[in-house]
Amino acid sequence: MELTVTQRNWCKKTGYSAHKILPEIKLVGEAGTFDIGKSIKETLSNLFPSGFRKLLKLIEELGPDVVLSDGYYSGILAAQSKKVPVYFIGHQFNMEEFFSEKGTSFRNGRKAC
Are 112 and 106 in contact (CB under 8 A)? Predict the structure, then answer.
């Protein structure tokens, strides 16, 4: 994913760095529609084991305290394999309902039983 000028400037301004990584998922569709079958086929045809190795190397080089993943599952697996904690940002997931069915509820970032 290529960063915009605004994103690059923000990273520099805050003292953080950003690194280009290979896309994990390829979404396909026509005329505003989403085709899940073609998306899966395209994603599977573009998987590169070398991309995962590059993630592992990047984690080794940077030695992060934590990896923040916005749905990039390869990054989660790479971080976990290097014993680096992961924070996952899930969009459009109803995790509260999932956990409440298991007897746990999360409100305002706090665990409530």
Answer: yes
Give every CB contact of residue 109 below 8 A, 6+ residues apart in sequence: none
For residue 68, give the 3-state DSSP assignment.
strand
Q: Read off the pTM.
A: 0.58
β pairing state of 110-112 and 67-69? unpaired
How far are the Cα atoms of 37, 93, 111, 112 from residue 103, in angstroms, in the given order? Answer: 36, 18, 11, 9
From first to last of its 113 residues, the chain has per-residue pLDDT tens of 456 667 777 877 888 777 777 777 788 888 888 888 888 888 877 677 777 888 899 999 999 998 888 767 788 888 999 999 988 876 655 556 666 666 655 555 554 44
**How far apart, in Å, are the Cα atoms of 3 and each of 17, 56, 66, 92, 104?**
11, 21, 21, 24, 38
